[in-house]
Every structure is written in C-alpha cells, then in structure tokens.
Automatic annotation (TrEMBL):
<comment type="subunit">
    <text>Heterooligomer composed of large and small subunits.</text>
</comment>
<keyword id="KW-0963">Cytoplasm</keyword>
<dbReference type="Pfam" id="PF02609">
    <property type="entry name" value="Exonuc_VII_S"/>
</dbReference>
<comment type="function">
    <text>Bidirectionally degrades single-stranded DNA into large acid-insoluble oligonucleotides, which are then degraded further into small acid-soluble oligonucleotides.</text>
</comment>
<dbReference type="InterPro" id="IPR003761">
    <property type="entry name" value="Exonuc_VII_S"/>
</dbReference>
<keyword id="KW-0540">Nuclease</keyword>
<dbReference type="GO" id="GO:0006308">
    <property type="term" value="P:DNA catabolic process"/>
</dbReference>
<dbReference type="GO" id="GO:0008855">
    <property type="term" value="F:exodeoxyribonuclease VII activity"/>
</dbReference>
<protein>
    <recommendedName>
        <fullName>Exodeoxyribonuclease 7 small subunit</fullName>
        <ecNumber>3.1.11.6</ecNumber>
    </recommendedName>
</protein>
<dbReference type="GO" id="GO:0009318">
    <property type="term" value="C:exodeoxyribonuclease VII complex"/>
</dbReference>
<comment type="similarity">
    <text>Belongs to the XseB family.</text>
</comment>
<feature type="region of interest" description="Disordered">
    <location>
        <begin position="1"/>
        <end position="30"/>
    </location>
</feature>
<keyword id="KW-0269">Exonuclease</keyword>
<keyword id="KW-0378">Hydrolase</keyword>
<dbReference type="GO" id="GO:0005829">
    <property type="term" value="C:cytosol"/>
</dbReference>
<dbReference type="InterPro" id="IPR037004">
    <property type="entry name" value="Exonuc_VII_ssu_sf"/>
</dbReference>
Length: 101
C-alpha cells in the first residue's frame, strides 16, 4: 500500500535540473537569442513562484536564472554599443509623453 511517488515533484532525477521542459535547458548552454533567454527566464520565474519545486530544483533554477540574466545583460551592452556607434557616441534620452506636452 505504500506509495513511493512524491506528489508535485518533477519526474527528473535529483540534480538534473528543474523538470522536463524544452524551453528550459538544464545545462549551462547559451540561449540562441535574447528573446529565448527572456522566455526561459519567465518560465523559471513562474516555476519558482509556483512553489512546487524541491530545494535542489529551486537552486538549479536560480543558478540557471543567474546565467540567463548575465547573458541578457551582455546582449544589451552589445546593442547599446552598436547604438552608440550609430549615434556618434552620444546616447539621446528617450522622449516621454511629458516632453511632448
């Protein structure tokens, strides 16, 4: 009568990541794009906020999230550098609705 299955747990073996999701690689591989990294981050955040992850899975998700944040920051810095080159090293402030009034 003993049920060895743990409810609300990922079917992945301990230490392999945060479950079976194609959008959430568990290795340290680089995302294919900024958008892919943001999508993966959103998935990780939703899983962590859901509260169903084990402590190990939460730690793995946090580590992966940190990698993704670093990747996104690097991508944004590259784009900012390209904008600086295009604008002659002077970044112009974004116009707001208050500026138009």
């Amino acid at each position: 009568m003993a049920n060895t299955a743990t409810p609300n747990r990922s079917e992945a073996p301990a230490g392999t990541g945060i479950g079976a999701s194609a959008a959430t690689p568990t290795t340290g591989e680089q995302p294919v794009s900024y958008e892919a990294a943001v999508a993966e981050l959103e998935t990780l955040v939703a899983q962590m906020e859901g509260g169903a992850l084990s402590l190990e899975d939460s730690l793995s998700a946090y580590r992966r999230g940190s990698q993704l944040v670093s990747f996104c920051q690097q991508q944004l810095e590259k784009v900012e550098q390209q904008v600086r080159v295009l604008d002659g090293e002077v970044l112009k402030p974004l116009a707001t609705d208050e500026d138009d009034a």
